[in-house]
Amino acid sequence: EPEVTQTPSHQVTQMGQEVILRCVPISNHLYFYWYRQILGQKVEFLVSFYNNEISEKSEIFDDQFSVERPDGSNFTLKIRSTKLEDSAMYFCASRMSSGRGGQFFGPGTRLTVL
Amino acid sequence: AQSVAQPEDQVNVAEGNPLTVKCTYSVSGNPYLFWYVQYPNRGLQFLLKYITGDNLVKGSYGFEAEFNKSQTSFHLKKPSALVSDSALYFCAVRDLTSGAGSYQLTFGKGTKLSVIP
To answer: How far is residue B75's CA from residue B85's CA, in Å, rounded to a whole number?
Structure first.
């Protein structure tokens, strides 16, 4: 069964450093998402991406964040200058073109900012 | 604004007994509702969804959920719990104010289900 994959599973970085979180969505999916979950809190929407551009973003997704689909398979989330409060589990998700389909999530990347 | 509430942080149930994980929602229009399950060190796995039609939705692993519009609820149920059902369960609603093609989900905080042998 096809799965969304994410790398790395755990990333530790120093405050102020740039990090790139990587995702490989399911191959025939067209819509891509990033969510995050701060420890003990809700899963929160960050951004959605379709047709090589951001279609929607939340207030969390400020200028420090960016997304890219550099090739036909990868979907990345970059945080330019990490803050302590960026420490969270980051989930990538993808969806087929059908509007009624569910989103399929990856296993997540745990980001720890020291 | 839309929101989802899962009133129980943890639900404990004996193996073989029926289980219910509660979810209530608030949206401006008609809701699209989802349940996801998260096993340790795994991503969120899609269980089932409600869009329209029959209020009782059947999903993966024997789970089902009942949509109740008057109570704005979408409780997850299973007639006979298994130890392997122990996991974190998330209810989610689709944000109907999003533009076409986005379909961002708003999640509840999750409910930890423990099935006791």
So the answer is: 16
pLDDT of residue B95: 65
- Take residue B2 and report the two structure tokens written for it: 């839309």
Closest to B29 in 3D by CA, of B102, B104, B95, B107? B95
B45 touches A: beta carbon within 8 Å: yes
How many other β-carbons are positioned within 10 Å of the β-carbon of residue A60? 16
Is B34 near chain A, with CB under 8 Å?
yes
Cα–Cα distance, A30 to A57 (Å, whole number): 17
Cβ of B51 under 8 Å from any chain A Cβ? Answer: yes
Q: Which residue has the higher pLDDT, B7 or B45?
A: B7
Q: Which residues does chain B have within 8 Å of residue A56's beta carbon, measured at their own beta carbons? A: 98-99, 102, 104
How high is the mean pLDDT of chain B? 89
Whether the ω angle into residue A8 lies within 30 degrees of 0, i.e. cis, is yes
